[in-house]
Design goal:
By secondary structure, this protein is mostly helical. The protein has a single domain, classed as Rossmann fold, CATH 3.40.50. The chain has three helices and two strands; from the N terminus they run E-H-H-E-H. Strands 1-2 form a two-stranded parallel ribbon. The protein starts with 10 loop residues before the first strand and ends in a 6-residue tail after the last helix. It is an enzyme of class 2 (transferase).
C-alpha cells in the first residue's frame, strides 16, 4: 500500500487463551470448534507474522490479561500517541 502507519498495535495472546476465548464466544460459528481453531490460528500466524516482525520494535500489548487491563494499556498507548502528535504532555 506504500504507506507507513503512525501506530501498529499487536495484541499478543497465548494460543491456549485464544482457543479458550474462541470456544467460549458462543457466536454460533461452525468453525469455532476444537478441530478447526488450530488450523485457523496457523493460517493467521503464517499470514501476519511478517507484518508483526516488521513492526515488532514498537512493542506488543499482552492481550492474555483481563479485558479491563488490556483496555487501560490501549488507552495509554493512544494517549501517548496523541501527546506526541500534538506536542502535549501526558495527563491521566
Amino acid at each position: 500500500m506504500k504507506i507507513e502507519p503512525a501506530l501498529v498495535l499487536f495484541f499478543h495472546c497465548p494460543e491456549e487463551e485464544l482457543t479458550r476465548r474462541l470456544l467460549n464466544r458462543n457466536q454460533g460459528r461452525i468453525d469455532d470448534n476444537i478441530d478447526t481453531i488450530p488450523k485457523r490460528l496457523k493460517v493467521y500466524f503464517e499470514s501476519t507474522l511478517p507484518v508483526i516482525h516488521h513492526y515488532s520494535s514498537n512493542g506488543k500489548i499482552d492481550a492474555g490479561r483481563s479485558i479491563d487491563e488490556v483496555f487501560e494499556e490501549v488507552k495509554r498507548v493512544f494517549l501517548q500517541l496523541e501527546c506526541g502528535i500534538m506536542g502535549n504532555s501526558v495527563k491521566e
